[in-house]
């Protein structure tokens, strides 16, 4: 079984002279909450981006959760969680990759 570190992926896109670096982590959310560090990393990475002071580097992160959305007892809708860069591999097996790239395309300026 691979370690969590081995499962973490990075997607690096070069578009129009900018580097879009996206951290992607498969992670179950059954024992997490909407305020967990992992879930909020999509915001924290933007703080890192600001500290870089390099407008050509854009940082993002996504969680690809194998936990089914209905298993979560959070007060967030699935759309709200997707806005927090949490995508569901099991519920959206045929669409989560398309959703990831659609969000990334929306960030490209």
The largest sheet is: 4 strands, mixed
Helix content: 25-40%
Main β-sheet, spatial strand arrangement: 1-2-3-4
Order of helices and strands: HEEHEHEH
Unreliable stretches: none
| Count of DSSP H/I helices | 4
Radius of gyration: 14 Å
Structural class: alpha/beta
Mean pLDDT: 89
Number of E-type strands: 4
How large is the share of residues in beta strands?
25-35%
Based on Cα principal axes, name the global outline: globular
N- to C-terminal separation? 39 Å
Q: What's the multimeric state?
A: single chain
Structural write-up:
It is a single chain. The chain is α/β, with parallel strands linked by helices and 109 residues long. Helix content is 35%, strand content 26%. It is built from 4 helices and 4 strands; from the N terminus they run H-E-E-H-E-H-E-H. Strands 1-2-3-4 form a 4-stranded mixed beta sheet, with helices on both faces. Strand 1 and strand 2 (18-26) form a beta hairpin. The longest helix has 16 residues, at 37-52.
Give a topology summary.
Elements (H helix, E strand, L loop, with lengths): L3 H4 L1 E7 L2 E9 L10 H16 L4 E9 L12 H6 L2 E3 L7 H12 L2
Parallel strand pairs: 2-3, 3-4
Antiparallel strand pairs: 1-2
